[in-house]
Amino acid sequence: MRISQIYLILTYFDQIEGPRIFHSIPKKIPSILEEILTNLMNLDLPDSFFELEIQRKIKGIFVNKFIEFPSKLARGNIEQILLTGILPYGINTLFLEYIFQNFEQKLKDYPEIYYAFYSPRKKEKKINKYKIQYGILEKILKDVYNSLKNKFSQINFIKRIPTTGLEKVDNYSEIPIDKIDKTILKTFITSIDSRIPEGAALLYDIGVNIGDTLHPLFIGGDLNKLLNQLADFWQRNLLGEIDEVQFESNKKLFFNVYECFECSHMPNIGQPVCKFDEGILTEIMTKKLNQPISVEEIDCYAMGSDHCRFEVRILDTPQIKKLRI
């Protein structure tokens, strides 16, 4: 079975029936998906955002968030739900995590949301409470579904950013500056605001996409050589000056970027904004070192500093947990 559309499914652990599909968008889902997700809730699930790999003939991406929250009506005073997004191949699951985190935060904003999972009993005086909370939950789920659709559309748009000619060169130093300038221009035509989560995630996505295109042009395996090449690439293409590399350990290092193209023109807004840099650096370093890498900006011109500062961590495991069934 090839996934050709986007599904959003909320599985609920009913105290009497056990795991059951509580809500889905669209309403009708293939029976095999229902079987997989109801069985999944019987397993020991990660308490964080995770990707599910189906060892069957299902071609698609399953991203999930298992959530527990307080309830006065549940046995043990805890409700358990599993939110699952199912998408066609072609998207990095890391780009979707913030959408699921926002969903969990929204639930916390409505401490009586658990009423949505219970049908009112006969002569129940608070029947409106059930309807109200169900309406709230339904609205939140629609927002999540629309966010998934928008993100999938964004990723497909990003993939169309022209990088014609890059496949014809053998080394990053041979890339004409005008091609990089055109790519950067395309990035900012979309008027992305990195101060909001959606804008920051989109900038990061674009950086990853460009990093995926560029990484074959760098030499992999040696971290020091790769850092030197990245510094040269940044300087050649007017992205900034990478300098002052400091190793805290063999798995953690820091470096500064001066005259950063992404933010050196910005006023002090009190937060880092260089998500494009994070994305492109993460993708190139991950691919060339063949290890999961985390690149995070910890200081920025947009925080009143005279440089940007990045923390690079070599991770023992991928950032997104995977569960195989």
For the largest sheet, list the strands in their spatial order. Answer: 2-1-5-4-3-10
- Name of the CATH homologous superfamily of the largest domain: Trafficking protein particle complex subunit 3
Which secondary-structure class do the elements indicate?
A: alpha+beta
What is the number of strand segments? Answer: 10
The oligomeric status of these chains comes to single chain
Number of domains: 2
Q: In one word, what is the shape?
A: elongated
Main sheet: strands, sense, barrel: 6 strands, mixed
Provide the residue-averaged pLDDT: 84
Tally of contiguous helical segments:
7
- Report the β-strand fraction as a percent range: 15-25%
Unreliable runs: none
Helix fraction bin? 25-40%
CATH architecture of the largest domain: 2-Layer Sandwich
CATH topology of the largest domain: Muramoyl-pentapeptide Carboxypeptidase, domain 2
Alpha-carbon distance between the two ends = 16 Å
- Alpha-carbon Rg, integer: 23 Å
N-to-C order of helices and strands:
EEHEEEHHHHHEEHEEE
CATH class designation of the largest domain: Alpha Beta
How would you characterize this protein structure?
35% of the residues lie in helices and 23% in strands. The strands form 2 sheets. A 6-stranded mixed β-sheet has the order 2-1-5-4-3-10, sandwiched between helices. A 4-stranded antiparallel β-sheet has the order 6-7-9-8, with helices on one face. The chain has 2 domains: 7-156; 161-324, Muramoyl-pentapeptide Carboxypeptidase, domain 2 (2-Layer Sandwich), CATH 3.30.1380. It is α+β, with helices and mostly antiparallel strands. The longest helix has 32 residues, at 127-158. A hairpin with a 7-residue loop joins strand 3 (50-53) and strand 4. The mean pLDDT is 84.
